[in-house]
Amino acid sequence: MFRKLDPDSELGKQVSAFIAQQKEQNVAKKFTENEYQLIISLFDGWLGDGATLTVAIRSIAESPIFYELTEKYKYEYSFSRIKEIVILLAIHESRAWAHEQFVEKEKKYYWKSKKQYGGRFKVLVKS
Is the model's pTM score more than 0.70? Predict the structure, then answer.
């Protein structure tokens, strides 16, 4: 009934390219460390000023940074999902877990060299 698709054939290459493209699109972007720091500084500031947890959550969901994040990540997450992530990042009890899940890790090393070999730098430097 079905024949095996040869990966070296033209159709096989097209199917492989399509699958790779779909996998690439399904990987959601993560928030940056700067965005995370801004979220927690705003939230902690409101709590430090005596706001209740409910008021602080409502304030962060109505803040300009929230609308900037919504615009930036609108293709990766739904509006309600961005709101959930921001709230998880803001609340102290879930902050560490949410940071691991939704904030990109800082790169501790980078490639540095005067020459590129095969499109890559060959000297690894700790930042």
Answer: no
Q: Do the beta carbons of residue 89 and residue 75 sit within 8 Å?
A: no
Query: Which pLDDT score, from 0 to 100, does residue 97 have?
Result: 92
Helix (H, G, I), strand (E, B) or coil at 21: helix
Please name the residues in contact with 12: beta carbons below 8 A apart, sequence gap of 6 or more: 5, 6
Express each pLDDT in 36-95 by its tens digit. 999 999 888 888 888 888 888 888 888 888 899 999 988 888 888 888 999 899 888 899
b/e per residue 74-91 (b: at least 16 CB within 10 A): eeebeeeebbebbbbbbe
Q: Which residues pair with 121 in a beta bridge?
A: 116
DSSP sequence for 49-109: TT--HHHHHHHHHTSHHHHHHHHHTTTTS-HHHHHHHHHHHHSHHHHHHHHHHHBPPPPSE
- Six-digit token pair at 58? 């409502």
Question: Strand, helix or coil at 18?
Answer: helix
